[in-house]
Amino acid sequence: MISLGLLAIVAAASAVDITNINQLEAAKNAQRITLRDINVPAGVTLTLDKLKPGTVVEFAGKITFGYKEWEGPLIEIGGKNIRVEGKPGHLINCEGERWWDKLGGNDGKKKPKFFSARLTDSSIVGLAIKNIPAHGFSVNSCKNLTISKIHLNVAEGHQKGGHNTDGFDVGNSEKIRISDSFVHNQDDCLAVNSGSDITFENNVCIGGHGISIGSVGGRKNNIVEKVKVIHCKVSDSDNGIRIKTVKEATGAVRDIVFDDVELKNIAKRGIVIQGNYLNKGPDGDPTGGVPITGLTINNVRGNVLKGGANVHVWVANASNWKWSGVKVTGGQKAMEHKGVPPGVKW
Ligand SMILES: *[C@@H]1O[C@H](CO)[C@@H](O)[C@H](O)[C@H]1NC(C)=O
Ligand SMILES: *[C@@H]1O[C@H](CO)[C@@H](O)[C@H](O)[C@H]1NC(C)=O
Q: Which residues form a coiled coil (predicted)?
């Protein structure tokens, strides 16, 4: 005779469809958890943590969220050896326009962050996301995480007051690979604040502030090393590629590669490397406490709009840069440079 308890264990070990967030706790032992057509209540994080290694989490149908002014995140997923994936036709629609007030993450309405990843030896694949309220993916304290085929569409933010809609914020993480993704937003496509061995490959960034390392300095972890940005496109953005370190802070930015990056219609700076970042903007002379060393820029090409500058370097204590094949043209803004290591030309 098979007991009900045994049946429950058999069911728990296989696949579970969740259509209401209340069913989540009971489903956490399943090998495959499908989140289908869920409306997450206001002020609640859709939390999937303490999952068993090997768990697959799927997003299916339409995922929406109730409205509340709070810090979020809307979704948090943690664990080891977890695969998160989107099923064909699904959409995670945050309806961020309900929060947008042109003031972003620091002011006005309090806006929930979108997605907090706390993952090791894991992957996030094929999610389709629309209109995040403010910051998108927060990759913090993750190790060996692959994020690919993400479609993050916040295009409506340009008309409707979206701001600080970062694509991927990476901090304090190791061995992170973000690839084959699309981001249309109103802030950094990628921002790396700290971490090591981070690859950003074959991504398209539209409308935002470009691909950024920084700001680095003034946090708990102030080292960024071994970052590779390869084969990406940045268009209709404020900047193309950027490194910014915090003035008077300490730390290091080292072994950074930008290779094969195509820029199109960049409004402010095609390539900008600055060591004087303070309170959300550049401020006077750079300081050298966060030296930028081992910076390779190869085959970065494209156009800056007339009012912008093709390249701007404003650093101290930088060394061992290798730049080649930089063909950024069109910008007519004349800018002074500081701290360019010997031999670097563009
Ligand atoms: C990294 O994670 C993947 C799963 O995404 C796993 O297959 C691989 O073994 C992990 N690598 C290491 C070195 O643990
Ligand atoms: C320059 O960087 C080195 C580390 O490479 C550091 O020891 C030194 O203090 C820095 N200099 C300044 C002026 O900050």
A: none
